[in-house]
Design goal:
mainly alpha, 4 helices, 2 strands, flat
Length: 157
């Protein structure tokens, strides 16, 4: 397994983390109704999405970034070949970005990007589709990735 694959995975994890930090700023604005640019004075800012959705985008993004970085660091221990490591790396990085896209789509879609059609939260739109489709695909792929990782880990003695 090449160290360049690990480095790319860590780089993607870092970028996902930066997007999550951006969601943290959105969370702060959502909680305060603006930003304190001058101490003691909140400058009002209207922001899209609910506070709960900003929490999910912030924390979920951070957890996805950590997941990608941790698995990148664990791959050599599992002694994957180059092809296997690239496959698992793709599944992890893809999941990190798909989930990030999903969290942001949930902020912008009245149905929280949970369904392709309307649901009890609201109507669907093209943003819900863009957020949900990759998230569903990578939900399946991440399960497969962790079955592969678990099998590989327990095969080593």
């Amino acid at each position: 397994m090449s160290s360049s694959l690990q480095a790319r995975m860590i780089g993607h994890g870092a970028l996902i983390m930066l997007v999550a930090f951006g969601a943290g700023v959105g969370l702060l604005i959502s909680l305060l109704g603006g930003l304190e640019l001058i101490p003691g004075s909140i400058t009002p800012i209207d922001i899209f999405g609910t506070t709960d959705a900003w929490v999910r985008a912030h924390l979920g993004g951070m957890l996805n970034a950590i997941l990608v970085i941790v698995i990148a660091l664990a791959l050599p221990v599992l002694d994957f070949g180059e092809r296997g490591a690239r496959t698992v790396g793709f599944m992890l990085v893809g999941t990190g970005w798909a989930n990030t896209l999903f969290y942001w789509a949930a902020l912008l879609s009245s149905n929280r990007a949970l369904t392709f059609g309307a649901n009890r939260h609201g109507d669907s739109n093209w943003i819900a589709w863009i957020g949900l489709a990759p998230a569903l695909l990578f939900t399946v792929l991440i399960i497969i990735a962790f079955v592969i990782i678990a099998r590989r880990a327990f095969a080593r003695r």
